[in-house]
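Input record, target 12 of the design panel.
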């Protein structure tokens, strides 16, 4: 049986509850004195449906059952934190907009059609979306933009990212954030400069392009290098993530930040005030 929710603490729903980020968020919320767990969502036919989330995670019961029906849970919550898939995130955005709750999105691999749907949802609810929820990465984004603005196209920009073997999209959402920042620093759009996945005889590097390279292996949480290279010297801006909890803490911070905001499409720069 689901526990009655106290009225003073913001209630949060976690999607993708069985995933690594989902479980980390649930553990974080269960120990928090600032928020409470309103519900856990998994895809239909998942083996955890109907079971207590605490037990399924190998711990004590939390009094919250895993469900595949999001809307009733959203109706009694103040926020949903969503690290799932692009198509699932679009569906959750429509439901969060209907319930008028904060939707924090850490899902990566979103394409233009997904982003258009999210923009429509943001007319009715607070939507906070970021390729990376950590403070360090968002500072790196700002630094990348400033360095790109200071250097001309004699400096080539390459972004190299490394992640665990299970990551399904490339370049990472964080790498794309960094590429967008670099392009903005140069007064352009990333779509005009992006060069991903070189292979074979590619010809010489095009002046002004922003290159992307992805490494997948082991249990790497996340590593990102932004390389500015010219004749005789290089500048390397680097962020290394060693604990996935930094993303969970950032997502929870975003959910709390959005409670008194007007509907709109926000990012972690807004949340962090940088």
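The sequence produced for target 12 reads:
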């Amino acid at each position: 049986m689901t526990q009655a929710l106290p009225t003073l603490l913001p209630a949060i729903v976690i999607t993708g509850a069985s995933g690594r980020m989902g479980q980390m968020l649930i553990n974080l919320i269960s120990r928090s004195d600032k928020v409470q767990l309103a519900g856990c969502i998994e895809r239909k036919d998942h083996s955890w449906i109907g079971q207590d989330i605490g037990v399924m995670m190998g711990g004590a019961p939390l009094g919250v059952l895993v469900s595949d029906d999001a809307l009733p849970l959203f109706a009694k919550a103040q926020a949903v934190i969503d690290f799932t898939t692009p198509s699932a995130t679009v569906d959750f955005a429509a439901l969060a907009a209907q319930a008028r709750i904060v939707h924090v999105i850490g899902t990566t691999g979103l394409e233009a059609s997904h982003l258009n749907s999210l923009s429509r949802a943001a007319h009715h609810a607070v939507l906070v979306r970021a390729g990376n929820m950590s403070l360090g990465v968002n500072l790196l984004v700002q630094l990348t933009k400033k360095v790109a603005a200071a250097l001309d196209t004699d400096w080539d920009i390459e972004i190299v990212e490394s992640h665990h073997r299970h990551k399904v999209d490339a370049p990472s959402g964080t790498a794309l954030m960094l590429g967008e920042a670099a392009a903005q620093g140069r007064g352009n759009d990333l779509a005009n400069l992006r060069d991903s996945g070189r292979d074979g005889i590619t010809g010489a590097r095009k002046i002004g392009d922003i290159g992307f390279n992805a490494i997948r292996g082991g249990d790497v949480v996340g590593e990102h290098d932004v390389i500015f290279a010219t004749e005789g010297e290089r500048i390397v801006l680097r962020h290394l993530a060693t604990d996935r909890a930094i993303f969970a803490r950032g997502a929870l911070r975003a959910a709390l930040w959005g409670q008194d905001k007007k509907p709109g499409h926000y990012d972690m720069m807004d949340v962090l005030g940088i």
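The radius of gyration is 20 Å.
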